[in-house]
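testing teh design pipeline on a random one, pls ignore if ur not involved
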């Protein structure tokens, strides 16, 4: 009598080559997808770090400008030692609404550009500051 191996005995020997190839290919596809997600996440983190650094630089420059004389309208550009370019402007805002008041409203704008011009869109901060109005008409001394 011929003794044929049973199906369960065949399975006890291990996996077939086809099963191993399918498992390895599924594992490699899953690892590829996960690695893409991590690389996209790391790019997003780097981009947000860069934006935060630029925002901090703009805030520091804005605070420096606010300590200066704001009574005169002016605009200028300057480049920092590390290559960042700042455009600063001080303009009177709502002049028609503050004409009769003892105060003036000045708008201060600071824009920062990355070194090398890789990103043409600047990061811009704007604020307004109230200052005392300077009368151009001197009072006539009456005696």
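output:
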């Amino acid at each position: 009598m011929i003794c044929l191996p049973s199906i369960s005995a065949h399975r006890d020997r291990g996996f077939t080559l086809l099963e191993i190839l399918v498992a390895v290919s599924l594992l490699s596809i899953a690892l590829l997808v996960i690695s893409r997600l991590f690389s996209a996440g790391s790019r997003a983190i780097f981009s947000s770090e860069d934006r935060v650094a630029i925002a901090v630089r703009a805030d520091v420059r804005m605070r420096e400008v606010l300590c200066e004389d704001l009574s005169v309208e002016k605009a200028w550009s300057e480049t920092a030692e590390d290559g960042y370019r700042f455009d600063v402007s001080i303009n009177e805002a709502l002049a028609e609404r503050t004409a009769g008041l003892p105060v003036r409203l000045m708008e201060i704008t600071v824009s920062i550009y990355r070194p090398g011009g890789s990103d043409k869109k600047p990061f811009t901060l704007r604020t307004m500051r109230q200052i005392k109005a300077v009368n151009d008409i001197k009072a006539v001394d009456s005696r």
